[in-house]
Amino acid sequence: MTGEDAPGAGAATWWGLIVEWHFSAIALDHIRGTREEALEALRERALRYQPKHPANPTRRLVYRDGDTFLLILETFGDNYRFRFRVAELLWDSAPRPGSAG
Questions:
Q1: Of all helices (H) and strands (E), which one includes residue 71?
Q2: How far apart are CA 77 and CA 46, in angstroms?
Q3: Residues 67, 39: contact at Cβ < 8 Å?
Q4: Nearest-CA neighbor of 59 among 46, 74, 45, 41?
Q5: Which has fewest Cβ within 10 Å: 1, 61, 82, 91?
Q6: Which run of H or of E encompasses 44?
Q7: H or E element in which residue 37 lies
Q8: Residue 15: burial class (beta carbons within 10 Å; 0-12, 13-18, 19+)
Q9: Helix, strand or coil for residue 97?
């Protein structure tokens, strides 16, 4: 991360849209903007999220608790939970799209 992509370089910040389940976590996407813009993008992702497992849930519930979203998928035999959060990107060893170098 260099130059304009570095934290504190201007009003816009890079945010990771993170989903966690069991003992795993992935960044669904990265966006540049304000925290409020990142939370709105995360809200949309949480509402649309379609995990590979379980394949046929009987019910979907999406909750918001402050800056965290929780998706619960109910099935005939079990429930699955996915937690979504926004995190400020402090360092990335790969260059950001559109950055030099």
A1: strand 68-74
A2: 23
A3: yes
A4: 74
A5: 91
A6: helix 35-48
A7: helix 35-48
A8: buried
A9: coil
